[in-house]
């Protein structure tokens, strides 16, 4: 049996996966702040799988952890996980001796891409586009996760699509993330509310001009990311996930309209059938935790395959 954890900025999602690839237990708990608290969260999540989900924790063979930040390939060493208060943390050293099993880690978006690919059937090629506070993607082809030469494959959020567009936190203007990132939209909206993206959509429906501008920009940014992923990696499918996708059909309708508009103006773009190649990850899907479990169990984490 293998354990996978998706360690997020506020919550940690943990799953237990049996030898046949079936999820047999799942728990969620709050994520602590700082290296020691993150380590404690991982250990508490594994214990909770036993206590709350009835998983036999003595049967665990491996642990995989999806976590924000940069992860050294093939290891569990994470750096610059700023949303967790972690500058550097070797999770294998911190967690492995306590659990007594191999521990590996992967960037959370790449882990989610791997899990989404497995949930999608584990064949062909797929890009997972995470629409959260920021924008990033992971690409899986023929069961293999594509990291790139320096691990930055899929960082589409910082591709500038409008040099005169809004300022991005990276210092450029008009980045995809500046248009479609949840953090950037909330900052530009700058109004009270616990769900600013939903508030923007609601205000746009009511005729607010600025909200309409932000909503249009979001669709423009997501559509641009889809085009980039298809035109560069020629994936069969682009699966959208992340917190912004809680908007569901409202988001998909806007993105579909933006893709249709570009197709209308270009026979070449029409030939790509982009609207048919975009899907939404089902709400509540444990893609990142599942992907982490599969990566943690791989004998060769650099050539890890999602088949089966």
From TrEMBL:
Entry superkingdom: Bacteria
InterPro entries: ATPase_NBD, ROK
Signal peptide: none
Family from the record: Belongs to the ROK (NagC/XylR) family.
Protein name per UniProt: ROK family protein
Organism listed in the record: Microbacterium pumilum
